[in-house]
Amino acid sequence: MSLQQFRCEQTCRNTCSALTKAMQLESEIVRLSEEMMQQCDDDNIKSFIADLAENSSEQVLTIMQKLNEVRARMQIYNNVNDMFN
Question: Is residue 1 part of a domain?
Fold first, then answer.
């Protein structure tokens, strides 16, 4: 699926499709960067790519944290909703 084909469903409950897609893309960047570092002979470029991979890894963790917040918020919402039904 390309970025042009992605559409936010806006009906997600316990997860966010946009955040999930962002996490997948950042993870792909990390894998690509690691592959490129193995093939690169220039230490300066290799270091730069390592920094990019590290930044993407940090973004993956940030996205995971946000997804966990979304899930927790929806769980609370579901529990409150169940109390009134």
Answer: no
